[in-house]
Amino acid sequence: MKDVLVIGGGNAALCAALMAREAGASVLLLEGSPRQWRGGNSQHTRNLRCMHEAPQDVLVDAYPEEEYWQDLLKVTGGITNERLARMTIRASSRCRGWMRRHGVHFQPPLSGALHVARTNAFFMGGGKALVNAYFRSAEALGVEIRYDTQVVGIERDGDRFIAAVTAAGERIEARTCVLAAGGFESNRDWLREAWGRNERGEWPSDNFLIRGTRFNQGVLLRHMIDAGADAIGDPTQAHMVAIDARAPLYDGGICTRIDCVSLGVVVNRDGERFYDEGEDFWPKRYAIWGRLVAQQPGQIGYSIIDQKAIGRFMPPVFPGTSANTLGELARKLGLPEATFVQTVEAFNAACRPGSFDHTVLDDCATAGIAPAKTHWARPLDTPPYIGYALRPGVTFTYLGLRVNENAQVYFDGRPSPNLFVAGEMMAGNVLGKGYTAGVGMAIGTAFGRIAGVRAAHACGFEHPDFDMEQSNAIAS
After folding, report:
1. Which of the listed residues 393, 417, 442 is the one where a domain comes to its end?
2. Strand pairing report for 47-49 and 27-30
3. Could you give the CA distance from residue 266 to residue 388 in angstroms, rounded to a whole number?
4. Taking every annotated instance into account, which residue ranges of this chain make up the domain Rhodanese (predicted)?
């Protein structure tokens, strides 16, 4: 019987396994996917949002705790646990050295990437390189890893973990356990249950695409909630991005995102605008657009730009639809031509002169039109025009398990002494809604490391480089 059982194979699970093993505990990690698909949604990531008080290697200037907190507060609308959020923020300033020791490399943001050189550290080779580095390190340290092993249930004695039960009926005992098996974004039935029908009689979730892994079915999350674990979060809230409507159903990843929204206008299938495309910097607001599109008829939108936008955003993997006139573009996209042309011409007429600068909140805005475009508003007047059809792309869901600063699972308001949770299964404690680039990896890294250390501690092992008293002080 192992000291620590880790269920999951993404960033949070690997951080937990590595920390527990470093502390001296024996560790078994169960990954539900085949080896070639290992890593969960972490394989599709590319950066980590990091607090820092001064320039650090790949990070420029400073990104202090209070600014990070205010950014998180803004996107969540206050639906966040401040104590746990600040733990995540402070932990993000201290984890990169440890990550490097386990083979993770960082690089400055590429030209045309998100404007986050000050706030986010980018992984060289992306998330796939990160999870591969962690798996190599885990194997070298003696972590036992099993693939194609889906856990469907947990045996408990009261609030104490006893064993995990796999889909094959195998019973696996351990002294402690860390749950890090992801959310339910790939479970089409659960998405339907959560979203229901809208006022038009549509099932919105039927038109959602899944940016990440197909293996996050939420089986273990559902089991834990049904078994009485304290849950937190709204099942309709998720990291949901507007992505190319031609993206695959699963595993499209980062390259399917459409990053030119703030450089033009977005219309629905009726040819009408429905939200301020220039509300804030794209890294802070890109994750609201999936939900906005989900609320439109048919769950589809269209991002429209002209030639002035070319070269100012990361081009998606699929080329857009191009036309020399607005009417031609409408016909190619299947939009009502007269309404679409009127929408764009009205927007053009509402644009006021200003100094365009997409790296700052500039003074290029509209006047006398609703919805307004508050920054980066320039007339679409330089053909050929380009349009991208958009669908909601779900990255991960926020419904999860309640935790405390020790990453403990709760049952009826009592923390379990030997059952912990990290990653997407508890991210809703910090992310009640909204998203800002790189914070998911920050949550997974912070609570994965905490869960691993606490699980090992529950077995009598102390991590040599993790100060438990400092962790408690940070939490308070």
Report:
1. 393
2. unpaired
3. 9
4. 4-46
Residue 133 pLDDT exceeds 70? yes
Residue 138 tokens, joined = 């885990």
Task: Indicate whether 15 and 144 sit together in one domain.
Answer: yes
Percent of the chain with pLDDT over 90: 90
Mean pLDDT of the 403-431 span: 98
What pLDDT score does 471 carry? Answer: 58
Predicted confidence band at 475 (pLDDT cuts at 50, 70, 90)? very low
Q: Which residue, 366, 393, 420, sits at the end of a domain?
A: 393
Q: Are 177 and 251 found together in one domain? A: no
The kind and range of the H/E element at 123 are: strand 120-123
pLDDT classification of 6: cutoffs 50, 70, 90: very high
In a domain, 204, yes or no: no
For 66, phi then psi, to 5°, come to -65, -35
The CA distance from 364 to 401, in Å, is 43
Same domain, 411 and 280: no
Selection from 282, 284, 239 nearest residue 444 by Cα = 239
Tell me how far CA of residue 148 lies from CA of 12, 31, 56, 213, in angstroms: 18, 6, 40, 14
Select from 36, 25, 23, 29 the least CA-distant residue to 11: 29
Count of domains forming the chain:
2
Mean pLDDT of 370-390: 98
Do 47 and 81 belong to one domain? Answer: yes
